[in-house]
Amino acid sequence: MAIDTVPPLIAAQLNYLLSHSPLPIKVEQMWSGSKNHGLLDRFTLVIPFCLDYIRWDVIYNALYPLAAPDIIFGPEDESFRPYYAAGEEGDLKSPKNSMSDWNCKDPTRLLSLILELRELYMTYQRKRVGEVEDERLKFELSTIVSREGIEMYMSSGIEKTEEVKFALPLLGVDINKMVTGCPWRQKQKIFLQVIFPVGRKYMSTPSAPRLKLVASPELKALFSIEDFRLPSWLDGMCMAEYLPILEGLLQSQIVDAVSSIDVRRKFIVALAPLFGRPVEADPVFCRKAAFLTSSGVFTFLVHFSLPLQFPKQQPGLMLQSSQHFNPSGAPVKSPVITEFPWSPRWESSEMAERFFDYLVEECLNFKKYCNESLLQQR
Amino acid sequence: MERTVAQSSTPQGRYTLLPSRYSSEDILFCIDVDTESLVEMKVTGPNGRPITRLDSIKQAILLFINAKLSINPDHRFAFATLTKSASWLRKEFSSEVESAMAALRLLSADSSSGHADLTQLFKIAYHEAKKSRAQNRILRVFLIYCRSSIRPQHQWPVTNQKLFTFDVVYLHDKPGPENCPQKVYDALVDALEHVTEYEGYIFESGQGLSRVLFRHMCILLSHPQQRCLQDLIDIPKSLTKKSPTADSAPGEENPAASSQ
């Protein structure tokens, strides 16, 4: 008889974890430890680590609600044994930790346990990386070990080659403070992920590591990580040389990205005398603006979307009728228009005038397009 | 009157776009489903079928939602109806068009209600607005009212805590000896000024034309944090060719801003 509910004490701890965790931890699946009661007392947590994810199974027992859960780590981490001090059998002085001091009624406990274990896991991984017998890796590690916020991970396994992965936070500067009116609730971060193969043999020119930039998702309103070209890793380079070059480049591109906000802003403001006050525009990143216009009794919306590379890259333009509807009741929209007169060298006031002149003609085509799409529906 | 003024005009009313608060909206539609919502519009539908006010209202709301989501897919919508008082039609705010369509399908006219009390609507809005603010959103109540003789009332206290914006669309019969749409309109304006946080807009029409209703809906797309005073609304602007001046040569810039 499956009940399919989560016992309340467990639910309280899990909900607290999901809503208060400083890291975006997710639940991947939940299941019951027993066919008899059907209560969901086990689940898998997906925990961000080193710009990737680790999965830990949290095993409660619905029949013993007072007991702390067991945590099962990944198959690669058999040697990760937190809370097992050396010589623990009969050792009276085992350290107090979240497990030994468990309080099932305290909803904050699961989160503290997981965060504590994650810290211990970080230390465990650091130790593993430190023990690797690779002179180059030992050297690289020594040059970055003092950086704050680094995570590292050693992946091994019978089928995989051994690799060491580093996640390095870049740029001490607070990007949020650079943007006036910044709406981001959390500090935006950019990380470099560096993956070195572990090579025990001596190589005359060690191969370049794999490099990837990762940023928090909200940053894309201002700056595109995907479009950023990583500087090349030259032969014989090391992280101590590469990182300052990368950070210098990143810093200057971000400064440029911040000043381009005002270029977009100026364009939107230049449209207003001709197109009227926009019904809505993005006042912080200036990526979008929508205007209501008419041609005779035909009233329609003009949507501008401004790419990060504006004005080098032209705006996107789309028209939306207020009077023509498709069968599901949605107003007819034009496809995104790209064929209009455009030059990045024009002043914003001239750009606005050219758009106005273009749309005086184009809206007649759009009206025809709308009427035709209605005819096709009959 | 304590009114939060939009940050996007110079004192002369020229448009500026200063970096400012820009919250996604939670928009609560409250649709009057009194029998007067079944009054027929002037235009007929395909095959000459009559279209009621309620039919046009449903279409207008879909237009609004689709347009709003084209501008910013983060805005959300919920639905209530007004008979003697307000009650929920669909309580959860959602940004899914499908969800709005499902809610609108449930919308049907009721019997004649007699009076209209907005107190419950304002109570609901006040409560929801607190939740919206906790998520960095702003709440807007959008009332669509259809009665030509019944002035809406309310017992909402005077308060400095104005937590939501209030917009109204009023569809009515032509004024005559048997009705008082002007008095109804004035009562709606009073209610608006009493409760609205940002500048609220009110539009009315007795013409029975759907396209006029749709046009008003589009003006109401205006984001409350970026609005000018209703008296200064300059949209929609007309896209007409500027007439060439007598002396202009090809390539010469015409300094006129626009022609209307």
Automatic annotation (TrEMBL), chain A:
<keyword id="KW-0234">DNA repair</keyword>
<keyword id="KW-0132">Cell division</keyword>
<dbReference type="Pfam" id="PF06113">
    <property type="entry name" value="BRE"/>
</dbReference>
<keyword id="KW-0156">Chromatin regulator</keyword>
<keyword id="KW-0963">Cytoplasm</keyword>
<keyword id="KW-0833">Ubl conjugation pathway</keyword>
<dbReference type="GO" id="GO:0051301">
    <property type="term" value="P:cell division"/>
</dbReference>
<dbReference type="GO" id="GO:0006325">
    <property type="term" value="P:chromatin organization"/>
</dbReference>
<dbReference type="GO" id="GO:0070552">
    <property type="term" value="C:BRISC complex"/>
</dbReference>
<keyword id="KW-0131">Cell cycle</keyword>
<keyword id="KW-0539">Nucleus</keyword>
<keyword id="KW-0053">Apoptosis</keyword>
<keyword id="KW-0498">Mitosis</keyword>
<protein>
    <recommendedName>
        <fullName>BRISC and BRCA1-A complex member 2</fullName>
    </recommendedName>
</protein>
<dbReference type="GO" id="GO:0005737">
    <property type="term" value="C:cytoplasm"/>
</dbReference>
<comment type="similarity">
    <text>Belongs to the BABAM2 family.</text>
</comment>
<keyword id="KW-0227">DNA damage</keyword>
<keyword id="KW-0677">Repeat</keyword>
<dbReference type="GO" id="GO:0006302">
    <property type="term" value="P:double-strand break repair"/>
</dbReference>
<dbReference type="InterPro" id="IPR010358">
    <property type="entry name" value="BRE"/>
</dbReference>
UniProtKB/TrEMBL annotation, chain B:
<feature type="region of interest" description="Disordered">
    <location>
        <begin position="240"/>
        <end position="260"/>
    </location>
</feature>
<dbReference type="InterPro" id="IPR036465">
    <property type="entry name" value="vWFA_dom_sf"/>
</dbReference>
<dbReference type="GO" id="GO:0051301">
    <property type="term" value="P:cell division"/>
</dbReference>
<keyword id="KW-0132">Cell division</keyword>
<keyword id="KW-0156">Chromatin regulator</keyword>
<dbReference type="GO" id="GO:0005737">
    <property type="term" value="C:cytoplasm"/>
</dbReference>
<dbReference type="GO" id="GO:0070552">
    <property type="term" value="C:BRISC complex"/>
</dbReference>
<comment type="similarity">
    <text>Belongs to the BABAM1 family.</text>
</comment>
<keyword id="KW-0234">DNA repair</keyword>
<dbReference type="InterPro" id="IPR026126">
    <property type="entry name" value="BABAM1"/>
</dbReference>
<protein>
    <recommendedName>
        <fullName>BRISC and BRCA1-A complex member 1</fullName>
    </recommendedName>
</protein>
<dbReference type="GO" id="GO:0045739">
    <property type="term" value="P:positive regulation of DNA repair"/>
</dbReference>
<keyword id="KW-0963">Cytoplasm</keyword>
<keyword id="KW-0498">Mitosis</keyword>
<keyword id="KW-0227">DNA damage</keyword>
<dbReference type="GO" id="GO:0006325">
    <property type="term" value="P:chromatin organization"/>
</dbReference>
<dbReference type="GO" id="GO:0006281">
    <property type="term" value="P:DNA repair"/>
</dbReference>
<keyword id="KW-0833">Ubl conjugation pathway</keyword>
<keyword id="KW-0539">Nucleus</keyword>
<keyword id="KW-0131">Cell cycle</keyword>
